[in-house]
Amino acid sequence: MDNRIELSVIVPCFNLEPFIGDLLMSISQQKLADDNVEYIFVLDSCTDNTRNIIEEYGVADQIIECSVHSCGLARNIGLEASHGEYIWFMDGDDWLIDDYAIASVIEFVKGKDMIKIPFLSDKYNCKCYAMVWQYCFNRELIGDIRFRAQQPAEDNDFMDKIFEKRASKNMEEFARALYFYRYLRQGSNMYRFKILQEDI
What we know:
This protein is α/β, with parallel strands linked by helices. The protein has helices at 20-28, 50-57, 71-81, 101-109, 139-142, 154-166, 189-199; strands at 7-13, 37-44, 62-66, 86-89, 95-96, 114-116, 119-121, 135-138, 179-181. It contains seven helices and nine strands, in the order E-H-E-H-E-H-E-E-H-E-E-E-H-H-E-H.
């Protein structure tokens, strides 16, 4: 029997008590064998009930504490702890909209350095290359690239380094949306960045 982990899903979590249940429920409904994927949740200085909610759903393979509030560092910690051949970074306030999302990504990404994953959103309709959850990466492509600690826009910095290494933003994209992006949730990095921009 092959016990190899094909996909590592890495989720940074900062005080997501009202939201993370949507992601956890969508993970619990995935139609695939559990032995080829691992779910790693990194608690980014949480002070609420996020950990207990994750534990209640029973889908986490690892729950790791990060004492410094930084989404980038949390993702790095999850990456270091992961074992998968492929890596998918998700945000804890989003969710999967297809019960075969994980199985579809695993099948589609095989033999590729990265793929793009279409998404739906409540408000966001801009085409931006830099949101890291839009992609599934081959671990070898990531190599020693890591997220910076400073926020916001740590996604941009990471993706710029990925495309410097890959030399092209052209890649295969899955045929249908698999992911729902919750845009401008109060307290999120994107929300803080938008408020900051409006104050300038």
